[in-house]
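Entry 14. Structure prediction run on the chain below.
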Amino acid sequence: MQIYQELKTDNGTLRGYLHQPDVNKKVPIVVMYHGFTGHKGENNFLFTQFSRYLCQHDIASIRFDFLGSGESDQEFSYMTFSKEVDEAKLILDYAKNLPFVSQVIVMGLSMGGAIATQIAKDKTNEIDKLILWAPAGIMKEIVEERGSQIPSIDQGYVDLGGLELSPLFAKDLLQLDLWKDIEKFRKPVSIHHGTNDNAIPISVSEKYHMIYSNSQFMVYQDTDHTFTNVKIRKELFNNNLQFIIE
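Output returned:
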């Protein structure tokens, strides 16, 4: 059962979907965080497909557009990493208090994966497992490498194919250390990455795997950042299902 959701924040309304299995028992829930310039359905319906797959196996999921993305309030220029972390915490708080939830799994793709690691270290007692798909722990390094291409605040914005990226996005990231204290989360972690990922090097996931002592790392041959291959997605979904139910 797919149910439209709205979550009010101090800065606007988050919009998304809850997938709830039609069963008379408590079930796990996967809280999904989308990536940079992504949305609650993700590229080629990745999150939509995974949500439906989980629901078929009696696992709930919830996914929202962050503010400035998809159908949620605000323009894209509003978005920063830190703001999305704050929104992700609100989403987690909402999900964990749903009456049918037995355990909470936090999952993130790309920048959403980096956000998930920040949530996990801050709310480790509220999360049972962590799933990372091509996590973008090098967002700060990317900003530093492209510094000359990023305008100062008084120069306006970066045009990302019609989306206005504010200089505040870079300023915020340059003040953060996305690796600091993430090892505080000692519960099970599952990391997934494609060998043909041109957005985030597979070495980033290898680093996460080294940091998380209780982690598994799965590599998918000849697929990209969002696993755009039917066979690979079936494998990805099944691997994550087994991790959730084991």
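The mean pLDDT is 95.
Filed with the rest of this week's runs.
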